[in-house]
Automatic annotation (TrEMBL), chain A:
It is an enzyme of class 2 (transferase). InterPro entries: Asp/Orn_carbamoyltranf_P-bd, Asp/Orn_carbamoylTrfase, Asp/Orn_carbamoylTrfase_sf, Asp_carbamoyltransf, Asp_carbamoyltransf_Asp/Orn-bd. One of its GO terms (cellular component) is cytosol. GO terms for biological process: 'de novo' pyrimidine nucleobase biosynthetic process; 'de novo' UMP biosynthetic process; amino acid metabolic process. The keyword Transferase applies. SUPFAM superfamilies: Aspartate/ornithine carbamoyltransferase. Belongs to the aspartate/ornithine carbamoyltransferase superfamily. ATCase family. NCBIfam families: asp_carb_tr, PRK00856.1. This is Aspartate carbamoyltransferase. GO terms for molecular function: amino acid binding; aspartate carbamoyltransferase activity. Its EC number is 2.1.3.2. The lineage of its organism: Bacteria, Pseudomonadati, Thermodesulfobacteriota, Desulfovibrionia, Desulfovibrionales.
TrEMBL record, chain B:
Pathway: Pyrimidine metabolism; UMP biosynthesis via de novo pathway; (S)-dihydroorotate from bicarbonate: step 3/3. It comes from the Bacteria. One of its GO terms (cellular component) is cytoplasm. GO terms for biological process: 'de novo' UMP biosynthetic process; purine nucleobase catabolic process. Zn(2+) 1 binds at residues 66, 68, 160, 313. HAMAP family: PyrC_classI_B (MF_00220_B). This is Dihydroorotase. Zn(2+) 2 binds at residues 160, 187, 240. Catalyzes the reversible cyclization of carbamoyl aspartate to dihydroorotate. It is an enzyme of class 3 (hydrolase). It catalyses: (S)-dihydroorotate + H2O = N-carbamoyl-L-aspartate + H(+). Binds 2 Zn(2+) ions per subunit.
Length: 315, 429
């Protein structure tokens, strides 16, 4: 456990920019202490017994939802799943009314995945329980960024001074936005690489390098993070076809020849093998994809612990 | 001839042939018209009803050239009675209301109904001036029956809310409307370039992860319209201009003699896209709030006359409709109650003179749309607003007359307020 026993200062986790570097360090330290639980024969401790967490995933998710579910259960919290299709949202109920209904059931936290940017903030402003953003629209995915940075920190000891290239659909990626904030504040240099149609208009003001050529972007990079390409981008006229994207912006072994030795490859998943990432790279020794998944459980255990015990710590 | 009402000691916001701006005056009214405006003399007595206006500014009743009153069809947001009440309180004596009601005002019978409701609910003013739809159902497929509607009382025609994509259709609509001496008002938004957004595309939308609407979507259609106005030599009025590029295009067209006029709104003079930070749906408006550079361009354009009119684009929505995720919220700001105070807040810094405010909110819309206004000359309608520039008030349910409170200024202290409003010499506020 972290030695820091001061009350956790945040009610909600909406994006990484709320967190100070000391907060991030505390999350990482706590996650390290929980990693050991995940290696035990009996992977359960009573730390959050009696606490309840609603996993409100109004948008499809496999790994984030399961990761939070596993994290909560390993700390003995009761987790309840709610999907948009099975909820009153599908009957036209507003997010506000759904949230107030859930609040009346007195959960300690709601983990929200939602297709609209700002939805977590919307909920957090109206609910007394903690709201943890598990991805809102194109805006933020703070727990993914934390687990990515945690994974790289475990690998390198620190991300400071490292060059991380994020490759793919930046414009529509909540993962990219949160990672840019967190990795740059932790001292990494972040490069973004995408066609202009997949970069947001305001990207020139971000603290990043912009590239349109993968070979240039990954040169001497210490890590390359590929983002999932969504097929609707082609229907929206942002790309011509998968083949051209794969040939022009997909990460292949030849690109990595120019990267730093021992370059690490990440992907938040789900992967389109052969599109944004060559299949051999996804399974290679350079790949940290499964490490990200494992780290995700530890980081989310840390987050649930910190947010769900903040009141007790304050007393 | 002796007056039946005198408004004593008010400071005139705009000059007249006989009295300079900023003079303290006694405004004499007889039978609903201005009898005379004379220099104020505290020792002079009148044997008629007298209203004390010391410390107050005298303005003519204002014209709002762009409002949405939601009736028929969405009276839970606003209705003609509540909208006109908000107008009266905000200093507007004439309200031009857009056609995107449910049903759409694309038929003379609907126009007549709206006017009947207005006359019944506010027999002494403010006056309603319906703007008819350009096309049936706002679908831009068939022209609306403009001759009938003009005769029934439509003052202009517009598909505001649903921009007309087809240049050919729009051209024919402008020509047809002109046949009946009516102007077309265009909501400029090149629809294939403008995703349903509600905020400007740029730095803030990138940070918030929201879809943005680029300024070029507005400017591209402004370019079409101003060239068309020049080509046809027929007037076109550009609604709610929000960006610098549109201003430059309008200035270019006016320089070539094109019969183009344009309006902007208080929020484009006072707010930037940063008002959307925190996903504030109260700042979600179409066209979206732009950048500081655009705000400065809009202020200069109003000051210099490139933008002729300041209108409210009063777009009321119910609270539950705005209390949703940003992407789902409807666009619009409720503006009738607050517009004059907000615009007058720009006068102390000399961005706009009070006379320019009067021109942009009364004389210019009166001239463009043919509404008689008060210039404080003998014989003018005695439509007078008394405005207290030192009155502090907080925009709230209690202080606003509109049914809707969807304004970014809700809960904020606003300086300056209408304290009395006369139409045809009769006090309506």
């Amino acid at each position: 456990m972290s030695n820091d026993t001061a009350p956790w200062p945040h009610k909600d986790l909406l994006d990484t920019d709320q967190l100070s570097l000391a907060d991030v360090k505390r999350i990482f330290d706590t996650a390290v202490s929980f990693q050991e639980i995940n290696e035990r024969p009996v992977k359960k401790v009573p730390t959050l017994r009696g606490k309840s967490v609603i996993l409100f995933f109004a948008e499809a998710s496999t790994r984030t939802k399961t990761s939070f579910d596993v994290a909560g259960k390993r700390l003995s919290a009761d987790t309840f799943s709610l999907a948009s299709s099975g909820s009153s949202l599908s009957k036209g109920e507003s997010l506000k009314d759904t949230a107030l209904t859930l609040q009346a059931m007195a959960p300690d936290a709601i983990v929200l995945r939602h297709r609209y940017s700002g939805s977590s903030r919307f909920l957090a402003e109206r609910l007394e329980c903690s709201v943890i953003n598990a991805g809102d629209g194109w805006h933020a995915h703070p727990t993914q960024a934390l687990l990515d940075a945690f994974t790289l920190t475990q690998e390198w000891g620190s991300v400071a001074g490292k060059a991380v290239c994020i490759l793919g659909d930046i414009a529509h990626s909540r993962v990219a936005r949160s990672n840019v904030d967190l990795l740059t504040r932790l001292g990494a240099t972040v490069r973004l690489c995408a066609p202009k149609t997949l970069l947001p208009m305001g990207v020139s003001t971000w603290p990043v390098e912009i590239h349109h050529n993968v070979t240039e972007a990954v040169r001497d990079a210490n890590a390359v993070m590929c983002l999932r390409l969504q097929l609707e981008r082609m229907q929206a006229g942002l790309l011509p076809d998968l083949r051209e994207y794969a040939r022009t912006f997909g990460l292949s072994p030849r690109h990595l020849e120019r990267a730093a030795p021992n370059v690490r490859v990440l992907h938040p998943g789900p992967m389109n093998r052969g599109v944004e990432i060559d299949s051999t790279l996804a399974d290679s020794m350079n790949s940290l994809v499964l490490d990200q998944v494992a780290s995700g459980v530890a980081v989310r255990m840390a987050l649930l612990f910190l947010y769900l015990t903040r009141k007790e710590a304050a007393q | 001839m002796s007056p039946d009402l005198v408004i004593r000691g008010g400071r005139l916001a705009c000059g007249t042939a006989a009295v300079k701006a900023d003079c303290l005056t006694d405004c004499l009214v007889k039978d609903g018209r201005i009898l005379d405006v004379v220099p104020h003399d505290p020792d002079r007595t009148y044997e008629c009803e007298s209203v004390e206006a010391t410390g107050l500014v005298l303005l003519p009743s204002l014209i709002d050239a762009h409002a949405h009153l939601r009736e028929p069809g969405q009276e839970y947001k606003e209705d003609i009675a509540s909208g006109l009440a908000a107008a009266a309180a905000g200093g507007f004596g004439h309200v031009m209301c857009m056609a995107n009601t449910r049903p759409v005002n694309d038929d003379a019978s609907i126009t007549r109904d709206m006017l009947d409701i207005a006359r019944r609910s506010h027999p002494h003013g403010p006056r309603l001036h319906p703007i008819g739809a350009l096309s049936k159902g706002l679908r831009a497929e068939e022209l609306a029956p403009m001759a009938d509607m003009a005769q029934a009382g439509c003052i202009a025609f517009s598909n505001d809310g649903l921009p007309v994509a087809s240049a050919e259709f729009f051209r024919r609509a402008v020509e047809y409307a002109a046949t009946f001496e009516r102007i077309v008002i265009d909501h400029c938004e090149e629809p294939t370039m403008a995703p349903a957004a509600g905020m400007n595309e740029g730095v803030v939308s990138a940070t918030l992860g929201l879809k943005g609407q680029p300024w070029v979507a507005e400017a591209a259609q402004v370019a079409r319209d101003v060239l068309l106005a020049e080509y046809l030599n027929l007037p076109i009025h550009i609604a709610h201009v929000s960006c610098k590029a549109s201003v430059e295009l309008i200035a270019f067209a006016k320089g070539r003699g094109a019969p183009v006029t344009a309006e902007t709104c208080p929020h484009y003079l006072l707010l930037t896209e940063e008002a959307c930070l925190g996903y504030s749906t109260r700042a979600k408006v179409n066209p979206p709030l732009r950048t500081q550079e655009d705000v400065e361009a809009m202020r200069l354009a109003v000051e210099g006359g490139v933008i002729d009119i300041i209108a409210t684009d009063h777009a009321p929505h119910a609270e539950h409709e705005k209390e949703v995720e940003f992407d789902l919220a409807p666009c619009g700001i409720s503006g009738l109650d607050t517009a004059l105070s907000l615009v007058m807040s720009l006068t102390p810094g000399q961005i706009l003179s009070e006379a320019r405010v009067v021109e942009a909110m009364c004389h210019a819309p009166g001239r463009i749309f043919g509404i008689p206004v008060n210039r404080f000359a003998p014989g003018d309608p005695a439509d007078v607003v008394l405005y207290d520039p030192h009155h502090r008030w907080v925009a709230s349910r209690e202080t606003m007359r509109s049914k809707s409170l969807n304004t970014p200024w809700l809960g904020r202290t606003i300086m300056g307020r209408v304290t009395a409003h006369f139409m045809a010499g009769r006090r309506i506020v």
